[in-house]
Amino acid sequence: MSDRETTPSAGRSGDQDPQEATTGVQGVGAGTPGAAARAVGLFKQYGQGDTAVTALDHVDVEFVRNQFTAIMGPSGSGKSTLMHCMAGLDSATGGSAFIGDTDLSTLRDKEMTALRRDRLGFIFQSFNLVPTLTAAENITLPSDIAGRKVDQDWFGEITSRLGLSQRLTHRPAELSGGQQQRVACARALVSRPEIIFGDEPTGNLDSKSSAEVLSILRTAVDQDNQTVVIVTHDATAAAYADRVIFLADGRIVNELHAPTMDTILATLTGIED
């Protein structure tokens, strides 16, 4: 892991006012330069007729390159659905989701699979490691499937930074939960994706392991110019981000820049009241 000690609200790029909050989020239109991903009028509905449930209600949002964004909201607010639709893990009912300039709605199944494999990194709550493979094999698995050669210098730097150098021959069952999630982080980082999506990446971890994983993601943005978007219910995790967007009833209702624990909790309280 990096020698740099990262704490919530520390080490962010930009000069935003720590108390800055933005409401009434504006539409993103054709997108702005520097957007790693964006949604335009994104709509997701489950079921039909009287039983229809709207998970996303025509959402417009952008995720800026080289920035750490957290998505928060009450249970059922649509935060995981938003991430899944924008990452190509689920299809939208209407509207568009873009990775860079690529409209996901125009891709066939094989093209979508290739985009997820070649341009995106994923970190999930459940780790999603292959139990029969070693840590090293799990880290390089997406590149191996794609037939791409792994940059061994970068592999060595990432695994050393994440404290995995002495664990590369171990299988997941021989690793702690925190070590398994660090393997998942290394897998997401090693291919230098355009954007890393995390769905509750610290949800199954204790506080020490959670802090390690969040520090890894913070360093990836600050040191490696990576773009990170996570869904989380944890204000401590969200405080590592440069920006937090808040959903309620399938809509973005607020956002914070350079958030702190206090501003996050206050915003959540206002949404849930």
Element layout with pairings:
Elements: E1 21-22, E2 35-46, E3 53-64, E4 68-72, H1 79-86, E5 94-99, E6 102-103, H2 109-119, E7 120-124, H3 135-146, H4 152-161, H5 177-190, E8 195-199, H6 207-224, E9 228-231, H7 235-238, E10 243-248, E11 251-257, H8 261-272
Parallel strand pairs: 4-9, 4-10, 7-8, 8-9
Antiparallel strand pairs: 1-11, 2-3, 2-5, 5-6, 10-11
Helix pairs in contact: 3-5, 4-5, 5-6
GO molecular function: ATP binding; ATP hydrolysis activity; transmembrane transporter activity
Region (Disordered): 1-30
Keywords: ATP-binding, Lipoprotein, Nucleotide-binding, Transport
If you had to describe this structure to a student in words, what would you say it looks like?
By secondary structure, the protein is α/β, with parallel strands linked by helices. It has one domain: Rossmann fold (3-Layer(aba) Sandwich), CATH 3.40.50. It has 8 helices and 11 strands. The strands form 2 sheets. Strands 1-11-10-4-9-8-7 form a 7-stranded mixed sheet, with helices on both faces. A 4-stranded antiparallel sheet has the order 3-2-5-6, with helices on one face. Helix 3 runs parallel beside helix 5. The radius of gyration is 18 Å and the shape is globular. One of its GO terms (cellular component) is plasma membrane.
